[in-house]
């Protein structure tokens, strides 16, 4: 019973972050949108690595690929790699301070942005915009509040 | 405390399986285009998320539509009626011109059909991954939308359908770096190809000879040569024409005539079988070879 209810909460956060990832914004702000999907995957893998792992990250990435209309497997590959590195070191990351996890997350998102660019540029002709890397900073700004909020949710709904 | 290593295959094995899947998908999708037909079903599966994401904006729009005073409604109605009258007056002349054009074309033995089936569609959202310029519309395969279908608004060409779902479709805009469209200059019928540049207000016109008769301000319209877009719709205006000594081609750029990021309603065109009524005997090469005396 508790398994079902905890998965319900986890899937609800996934759904909300997918909606947030594609929520229509004015074009000016589009580049400043934080990477909600990376945030939510990163959090759940640190918190509950036996619940959310590579499989979930793969499915989520694939869903995001379909939603964004990008090449299938682009985000899926990235999220599963992120899940792998995080779940290999989840015990170490849990002992990090909030500042350290923020920096680590910033690094993750920066690397993922570069990898996305490399994959996309090898497949099709693309243009890199000036504002492309801004979302790294926005995500790092959001992460501490996001982390505290998610921890509150996890404890409040007894997700384990 | 549970660890993640208690059951199931090891992490490395899982990762290698998933990475193999991803690379397979990437290659299959980008190189061999295997998923263009399956995307209809995939898009339908995720469409609830799209509807949820678009709901607030839609609600806000309908709210702002319903909360208007009688005064503004009356004013708007009057303005629209005036506009309608002007358009109708123009149309009176248009039918006359159309008939005249038809007669002239009959004299020249070259018929052309101007009627296209079309459908109004609403833009659901202007969103995509950061590398491509696409927008999502609320018509899909159930409405007869097909891949490569031309999309215009009241100002000019917007783009073409790049992915079809059952109730939604994706339109790639003509400013996308992967998009090209055959055009001709309205003033002197010189042909060119317009490529997207990836920026919102700039298009590239490559391979223009330095002595070509193109000026800043020239209107480019679709030439219909690719067979995808019907001919005659405005695409862009030339914004820059520069030629540096010693270069093979001139640097030409253009601005799209349609407000790509601000249009709420678009028109889908059915450009089916453009050669249906053409008299193909006139294209017989032997006839052209005979010198005209």
From TrEMBL, chain A:
Cell compartments where the protein resides: Cell inner membrane; Cell membrane
InterPro entries found in the cross-reference section: Cell_shape_determining_MreD, MreD_proteobac
PANTHER family, per the entry: ROD SHAPE-DETERMINING PROTEIN MRED
Gene that this sequence comes from: mreD
Keywords assigned: Cell inner membrane, Cell membrane, Cell shape, Membrane, Transmembrane, Transmembrane helix
Alphabetized NCBIfam families for the sequence: shape_MreD (TIGR03426)
Domain of life from the UniProt record: Bacteria
Transmembrane segments: 6-29, 36-52, 58-85, 97-120, 132-153
The family this protein is said to belong to: Belongs to the MreD family.
Calcium found in the keyword field: no
The name this protein goes by in its record: Rod shape-determining protein MreD
Any Pfam family matching the protein: MreD
Automatic annotation (TrEMBL), chain B:
Coiled-coil residue spans: 70-117
Gene3D superfamilies registered for this protein in UniProt: Rod shape-determining protein MreC, domain 1 (2.40.10.340), Rod shape-determining protein MreC, domain 2 (2.40.10.350)
Top-level taxon in the UniProt lineage: Bacteria
InterPro entries for the chain: Cell/Rod_1 (IPR042177), Cell/Rod_MreC_2 (IPR042175), MreC (IPR007221), MreC_beta-barrel_core (IPR055342)
UniProt keyword annotations, A-Z: Cell shape, Coiled coil
Domain Rod shape-determining protein MreC beta-barrel core: 123-270
TM spans (from-to): none
Described purpose of this protein according to its UniProt entry: Involved in formation and maintenance of cell shape.
Family indicated by similarity: Belongs to the MreC family.
Name of the protein in question: Cell shape-determining protein MreC
